[in-house]
Write a structure and sequence with these properties.
Elements: H1 2-13, E1 22-24, E2 30-32, E3 40-46, H2 55-66, E4 70-76, H3 88-99, E5 104-105, H4 118-125, E6 141-144, E7 150-154, H5 163-166
Parallel strand pairs: 3-4, 4-5
Antiparallel strand pairs: 1-2, 3-6, 6-7
Protein name: Glutathione peroxidase
GO molecular function, one term: peroxidase activity
InterPro entries: Glutathione_peroxidase, GPX_AS, Thioredoxin-like_sf
């Protein structure tokens, strides 16, 4: 009886974490974010034809330098100025050819608006020390700690190798 009450309390009052979400990779595989428990995550809404697209290079560098403790995941989106290719194959080819991207990419998603994915609805509403609300542009970054909690959010102008981000990688 006590165990049942504890489980019910936990289900009702436990704050959600990023581990409660999944997504489909750019090559069609379902990925549960819970598979990355114990590592930090850097989740980034990306676009291939944006002034910030060159940040793919630094995201790849982060992936190579900190891959043992940080998982970088790009979420291509066409929510801002038609700056993403039409299909996942074109996106994947562009990223690999131009930036050598081999970190995880999701299929193209909506990061705002009526069709916003549940993950980005959570990320834009979750409490964090920076700010919450709609994503303003491509290449906003969300740093998740090893417990699945959003700990920092960075606007597009903060580059992936900026000290604001790298000093947080534990």
């Amino acid at each position: 009886m006590i165990m049942t009450m504890i489980m019910l309390y936990t289900m009702l009052f436990q704050q959600p974490t990023v581990y409660d979400y999944s997504f489909t990779s750019i090559d069609g595989k379902k990925i549960n974010l819970a598979d990355f428990k114990g590592k930090q995550l850097l989740l980034v809404n990306t676009a291939s034809k944006c002034g910030f697209t060159k940040q793919y290079k630094e995201l790849q560098e982060l992936h190579e330098q900190y891959g043992d403790k940080l998982v970088v995941i790009g979420f291509p989106s066409d929510n801002f100025g038609n700056q993403e290719y039409g299909d996942n194959k074109e996106i994947a080819e562009f990223c690999e050819k131009n930036f050598g991207v081999n970190f995880i990419l999701s299929e193209k998603v909506d990061v705002k608006g009526d069709d916003q994915t549940p993950l980005f609805k959570y990320l834009t509403q979750a409490e964090n020390p920076d700010f919450k609300g709609d994503i303003n542009w491509n290449f906003e970054k969300f740093l998740i700690n090893k417990d699945g909690k959003l700990v920092h959010r960075y606007r597009s102008k903060v580059t992936p190798l900026d000290e604001q981000i790298t000093k947080q990688i534990l």
